[in-house]
């Protein structure tokens, strides 16, 4: 894990803004989505009103001060941000047969696509046809244990940005 040496008090406005849109979390140094100020784990550790304020975006009034305040908060309360972990989407199936009987369809056994993870995963289709990556034998969503759970969403964001800028070029 890369070492972060951020001191929010010593960071300039420009550095705080850059941290908010960076693909590295300023609290823990792990990869994060560029559309969020912090990685999912640290984001989930914030109180709701902080997420509201930060979600208003870089151009909202007082954003730099808000970013400095919550960065400091997360750095001071490190244990809390590590212990707090969203388990939304937890499954209760004990065997693959139970999962299949519930309408899930086996798709494949592959490696996680995140270069820093590469764990073996079980791919299934949910009853609504969407894909779900699971750990075996626990049969819980792989994102709970993935070394880089935001990897695929970052890739999607990047693709979306490339598409948007190509559209803009064409429109000119
Ligand atoms: Zn983080
Ligand atoms: Zn993974």
Distance between the termini: 43 Å
**Pattern of helices and strands:** HHHHHHEEEEH
Rg result: 19 Å
Low-confidence stretches: none
Which sequence of strands runs across the widest sheet?
1-2-3-4
**Mean pLDDT metric:** 86
Approximate helicity band: 40-55%
For the biggest sheet, the summary is: 4 strands, antiparallel
Number of structural domains: 2
> What compounds sit in this structure?
zinc ion
Count the E strands.
4
The count of helical stretches stands at 7
The 3D shape can be described as globular
- Strand residue percentage: 5-15%
**Structural class category:** alpha+beta
Provide a short characterization of the protein structure:
With 172 residues, this protein is α+β, with helices and mostly antiparallel strands.
